[in-house]
């Protein structure tokens, strides 16, 4: 019997299905840029506030060029991001589109998600090079859209869940915060979580830190804008070396897996925590098995991880590169390696896992 296998011919229908799926993906890839354009130029905002408009009316109210706006509107309508009425020739937003595209207080708010995605794509030539060499690319090296998009992407989720669900899921933490706790928010970026906690717990004081000094400058500005600057201070410092304490609570929001040496950072957390203190770790939602993450959220997170999180960790000492989809088991290993004796999953949303670690 011959061992030579006959080449399997591709199924023509399946091939065309795959090609058309790819057409949709190309449209989606380009749409990230169009959403950011619409967001930055106030096109969605004008549609939400002013109701259905012709391209000329929208161009007039946003001081933009009618020819470009018409093309942008048609791309948006073809993708289901705006609504088109052929009878009037006007474009408008359904209530759900208006919320998702313009209401920064809604947990469904999307522009930040697109902004960080587009920023990541803009930096992808540098990542292409790192894929060859294995070198890292630091968070601080990215375009500003990554930093601002990150803040705008995460804030709606923190607004929806942090005070109402995540902190109450931790043992005794809300009680301490209400009576006056000392809190370190490590890897705080633009300080969305720090400011939110400071607003909710007026008797507590907060120290936000991040190794990226420009993010820290923005965080301090955000605290001033929110009027909480008297109880919130910021430090440009790595997670392995922030100061102050001892702390009742140390928090890390979507940053442990970005660090080169998460175990070293965890050891520092332990050394700055009161003996009865709590470390809250918020990480992207992920299953422990790779195949558990082959779903739309996992897909987006693996892509962010390739372009942002993995290169960020590889740019630092140790370079453990947990990846955004590390999952509970690997995060637990990091926590226990630093000497914490208690570790549990306290809460979760479709996008995040919330862990509690105690000394
Ligand atoms: C994905 S962003 C999250 C920022 C912020 N916690 C938030 O939720 O909006 C990751 C942050 O981790 C910070 N970071 C990365 N490595 C760090 C380290 N070794 N020490 C302190 N911060 C670090 C980055 O500068 C960045 O601000």
Can you give a write-up of this model?
The protein is α/β, with parallel strands linked by helices. The chain contains 14 helices and 9 strands. β6, α12 (about 260-270) and β7 (about 275-285) form a beta-alpha-beta unit. The radius of gyration is 23 Å and the shape is globular. It starts with 11 loop residues before the first helix and ends with a strand.
- Beta strand count: 9
Termini separation (Å)? 66 Å
Q: Work out the strand percent.
A: 15-25%
* Poorly predicted spans: none
Mean pLDDT: 97
Radius of gyration: 23 Å
Order of helices and strands: HHHHEEHHHHHEHEHEEHEHHEE
What class, by secondary structure content?
alpha/beta
| Number of separate helices | 14
Shape: globular
| Sheet with most strands: strand arrangement | 5-4-3-6-7-9-8
Helicity level: 40-55%
The biggest beta sheet, please? 7 strands, mixed
Q: Enumerate the distinct ligands.
A: S-adenosylmethionine
């Amino acid at each position: 019997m011959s061992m030579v296998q006959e080449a399997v011919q591709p199924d023509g229908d399946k091939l065309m299905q795959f090609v058309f799926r790819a057409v949709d993906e190309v449209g989606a890839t380009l749409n990230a840029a169009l959403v950011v354009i619409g967001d930055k130029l106030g096109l969605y905002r004008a549609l939400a506030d002013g109701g259905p408009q012709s391209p000329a009316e929208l161009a007039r109210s946003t001081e933009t060029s009618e020819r470009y706006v018409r093309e942008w509107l048609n791309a948006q309508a073809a993708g289901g991001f705006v609504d088109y009425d052929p009878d009037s020739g006007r474009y408008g937003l359904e209530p759900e589109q208006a919320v998702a595209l313009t209401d920064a207080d809604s947990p469904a708010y999307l522009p930040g998600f697109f902004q960080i995605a587009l920023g990541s794509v803009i930096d992808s030539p540098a990542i292409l090079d790192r894929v060859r060499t294995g070198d890292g690319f630091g968070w601080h090296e990215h375009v500003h859209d990554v930093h601002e998009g990150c803040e705008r992407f995460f804030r709606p989720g923190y607004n929806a869940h942090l005070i109402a669900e995540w902190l109450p899921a931790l043992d005794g933490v809300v009680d301490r915060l209400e009576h006056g706790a000392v809190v370190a928010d490590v890897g705080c970026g633009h300080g969305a979580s720090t400011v939110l906690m400071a607003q909710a717990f007026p008797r507590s004081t907060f120290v936000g830190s991040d190794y990226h000094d420009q993010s820290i400058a923005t965080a301090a500005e955000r605290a001033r804008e929110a009027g909480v600057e008297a109880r919130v201070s910021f430090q440009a410092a790595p997670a392995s070396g922030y100061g102050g304490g001892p702390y009742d609570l140390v928090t890390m929001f979507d940053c442990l897996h970005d660090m080169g040496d998460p175990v070293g950072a965890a050891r520092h957390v332990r050394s700055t925590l009161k003996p009865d203190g709590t470390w809250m770790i918020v990480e992207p939602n992920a299953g422990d098995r790779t195949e558990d993450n082959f779903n739309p959220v996992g897909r987006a997170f693996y892509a962010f991880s390739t372009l942002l999180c993995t290169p960020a960790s590889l740019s630092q000492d140790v370079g453990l590169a947990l990846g955004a989809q590390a999952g509970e088991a690997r995060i637990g290993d990091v926590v226990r390696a630093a000497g914490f004796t208690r570790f549990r999953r306290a809460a979760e949303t479709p996008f995040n896992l919330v862990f509690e670690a105690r000394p």
